[in-house]
Structure formats: structure tokens, C-alpha cells
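Sorry to interrupt, but I need a hand with the structure work. Go ahead and set the record down below:
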Amino acid sequence: QVQLVESGGGSVQAGGSLRLSCTVSGFTDTSYYMAWFRQVPGKQREGVATCYSGGHSTYYADSVKGRFTISLDNANHVMYLQMNTLEPEDSATYYCALRRWRTGSWVRLAEYEYDYWGQGTQVTVSS
């Protein structure tokens, strides 16, 4: 029922920019968390950035801090990831994820914390 669809991936030269989008359908809650993850074949999925529907908190992995910006259009359930100054090590399949609000402490960039996932979009950065 709940579906997340990523878009905006592609191939760019090092130093270039891309903006990824994630559109959510089948979900109308007003309080929720969303995140971007990325994965290279043979490696664990890596948390990139997270945000909250209330707009008061964002978190970034050290590897992308200062280069990537996460944002969320809460009214339309669309999340974005603006990626600037891309490097070859940013090449990966990027996934969006959604976590329903619930009580208890949790780890924001941990894959297992999220309830719904998109199919992924490929980003390739050439030297």
C-alpha cells in the first residue's frame, strides 16, 4: 500500500550536481521520518541523511556533510536530496526510506529502523 519512488539519478562528472526526489503514496500521517541511504554492491547500505516531517532536525553522514542537503515537502510527501560537488566515491544506488513515528529511542541512520523503502535510483560519478 505504501510506496516510495525515487527519481533523479544519472551519470555526472566529478564536481557536478544532482537532485534526487522521493515521492510517497499511500501514506497520509503528518508525523514521520524520512532518510536517504546508498549502497554499493558488496557493501552494507550506508545512511546518508535524515529529516523529520516537523522540519526541526536533520542529520548527515560525515562523508556528505557540507555537500548534500536533505529537504522535505511535508504537505506533498516529497523528499529531496541536493547533491553538490559530487565525487566518484558517491557513486551508488540511492534509496529513500520512511519511518513511522513511534515511541522509544532509535538510531537515525540505521537501515533497520525504517519501515518502507523505495526501489532505488542509480548515481554514477565519473572522474
Remarks:
- DSSP finds no helices and eleven strands in the chain.
- The chain has a mean pLDDT of 96.
- The two ends are 40 Å apart (CA to CA).
- Residues 73 and 80 are 8 Å apart (CA to CA).
